[in-house]
């Protein structure tokens, strides 16, 4: 490309004298060489600059790609994350490590003791206007408070379409709320929270807090609900508090509650399947195991089985007030009894509340005969599909039951089959 720089004036290699070029020719040659070197330097610099630009462009493209990925991830996070900033989590009470034999206790017992004092957790999902605002909450005659777990979507859907459907019945309103914690962790927790958020957007019936939804946290769930009620629904007349696997006849409940003499929810009522003369289970393998480190006493106060019970708004507020001074016990129905005892009031028994199930003679009659369930208040342990079927059957206007086998008991508000 630059061969002419070393060539003579005729295009062949000769000495400067042969070409007849003098001192001026030699200066011209040096000038050409310098120009050529300058040109080469420029080309090299251009190549270096171009290469750097390409490198910078690749770097910019790489950074843009990373930024895009980050933004995409942030977008996904905003779509799936429903948790508020967790700045109010309580710290463990390390003094429990000094308790005798603390190290030998099961992990869930240790966790309960370490965080027993924690009664406030961030709220993830709320329905602030469920009762029409605190000032209008007396319009809610029966508030269905249903304890559920995040994954129990199928149960909640069935209840919404059956006995827990919000409706106006006999001139009074029935409203529904599910109370839930969180489950799993990491991505699983986010996905489940996303499901609950979508579910709540559609149904407006979920209260969720950021605590682990476990058996030993059922009491915490109850207290968090009562705190919510105190703010959002303080004047609700009556409540059904129950699990999401019960079959309830809310029409019978309305009839029973409207039949209460001189009690519009402003007086004490707490009724269900009463349990008494029992105490903590000390067997470690039991689901209900309560060691002496949690409760030293060997006797529980009378209480109603936690599968489901009815109470007045007055009693719900009383239990909440007592909970400020009654130390937590993980068995939630027992804890309710402890709060009642603290307040100097008692639970009562109702024949129509069957948290231990109906005792129907197997082989003699069908244990799912709708005539049994049409006259009760609630029965515990029902599968979702059976709730759906049973609700339809007891609403059947053509259902015929042997009325002569029933007798009306005014104080119970249900029919009782004679044996």
Automatic annotation (TrEMBL):
Recorded superkingdom: Eukaryota
Protein name as catalogued: N-acetyllactosaminide beta-1,3-N-acetylglucosaminyltransferase 3.3 isoform X1
């Amino acid at each position: 490309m630059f061969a002419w720089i070393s060539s003579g004036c005729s295009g062949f290699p000769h000495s400067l004298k042969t070409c007849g070029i003098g001192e001026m020719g030699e200066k011209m040659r040096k000038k050409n060489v310098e120009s050529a070197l300058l040109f080469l330097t420029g080309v090299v610099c251009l190549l270096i600059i171009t290469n750097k630009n390409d490198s910078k462009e690749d770097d910019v493209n790489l950074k843009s790609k990373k930024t895009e990925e980050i933004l995409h991830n942030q977008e996904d996070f905003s779509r799936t994350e429903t948790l508020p900033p967790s700045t109010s989590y309580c710290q463990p009470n390390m003094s429990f490590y000094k308790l005798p034999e603390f190290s030998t206790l099961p992990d869930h017992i240790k966790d309960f003791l370490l965080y027993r004092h924690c009664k406030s957790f961030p709220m993830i999902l709320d329905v602030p206007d469920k009762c029409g605002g605190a000032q209008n909450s007396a319009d809610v005659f029966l508030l269905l408070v249903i304890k559920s777990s995040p994954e129990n979507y199928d149960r909640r859907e069935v209840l919404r379409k059956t006995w827990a459907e919000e409706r106006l019945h006999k001139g009074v309103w029935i409203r529904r709320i599910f109370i839930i914690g969180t489950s799993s962790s990491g991505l699983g927790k986010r996905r489940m929270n996303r499901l609950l958020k979508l579910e709540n957007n559609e149904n407006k019936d979920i209260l969720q807090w950021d605590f682990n939804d476990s058996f030993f946290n059922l009491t915490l769930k109850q207290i968090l609900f009562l705190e919510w009620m105190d703010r959002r629904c303080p004047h609700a007349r009556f409540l059904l508090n129950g699990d999401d696997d019960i079959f309830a006849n809310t029409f019978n409940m309305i009839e029973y509650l409207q039949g209460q003499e001189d009690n519009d929810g402003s007086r004490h009522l707490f009724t269900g399947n009463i349990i008494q003369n029992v105490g903590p289970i000390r067997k470690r393998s039991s689901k209900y195991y309560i060691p002496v480190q949690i409760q030293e006493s060997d006797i529980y106060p009378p209480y109603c089985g936690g599968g489901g019970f009815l109470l007045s708004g007055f009693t719900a507020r009383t239990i909440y007030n007592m909970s400020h001074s009654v130390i937590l016990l993980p068995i939630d129905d027992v804890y309710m009894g402890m709060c009642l005892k603290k307040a100097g009031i008692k639970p009562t028994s109702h024949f129509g509340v069957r948290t231990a199930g109906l005792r129907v003679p197997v082989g003699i009659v069908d244990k799912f005969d709708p005539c049994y369930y049409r006259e009760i208040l609630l029965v515990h342990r029902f599968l979702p599909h059976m709730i759906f079927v049973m609700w339809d059957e007891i609403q059947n206007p053509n259902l015929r039951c042997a009325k002569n086998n029933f007798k009306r008991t005014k104080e119970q508000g249900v029919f009782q089959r004679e044996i």
